[in-house]
Amino acid sequence: MKFPPARLRTWPLLGMLSAMALAATCLCFGASTAAADNDPPPPPLHNVHYTVWAEQPFNVSIYYRDTDPPNWADYSHNPYQFSPKVDADVGPNQQWNLDVGLANPDEWAMVVASTGGESTKAPNIHCALAVDGVVVATHQGPKGALCSLRNW
Question: Which candidate, 59, 51, 66, 58, places its Cα nearest to that of 138?
């Protein structure tokens, strides 16, 4: 009995393996897509722009909200989990700016800047908060400022 050359004998095997791999891929991706189709779409994110500056050069501590907490209870249990802090040098010609995306800026958008309790200097700190390109809150104070839509 004469067998076909080795290269011809592998074609049916390769075809069968390719078909099996394609079927497995379709099953995996089809299942995850079907599960994802049942989840509600995430709410649209609003562009929130924070700005902080001072009338005199100064290093300030800034807390801001960059994530919507899942609910008030989670936020109140650990507000710092949802409020990152940075230290920044600001002044009349040096602003700190940050853009974040929030689903509910009326509840969660917030930026606060302060000199810290140890400083006796008062550089007159300013903040501004804009949502989708519209300035919705401004504030200034000798040692700190809070910009928010919600009364904290």
Answer: 51
Question: DSSP secondary-structure letter at 79?
Answer: G
Length of the chain: 152
Query: Left if phi > 0, otherwise alpha if psi is -120 to 50, otherwise beta: which for 105?
Result: alpha
Chain segment 28-46, per-residue pLDDT in tens: 445 455 555 677 888 899 9
| H or E element that contains 60 | strand 58-64
Residue range 117-145, pLDDT digits in tens:
777 888 999 999 999 999 999 999 999 99
Domain 46-148 has CATH 3.40.50: no
Closest CA to 149 of 107, 104, 111: 107
Name the residue ranges covered by the structural domains of the chain: 1-39, 46-148
What is the value of pTM for the model shown?
0.72
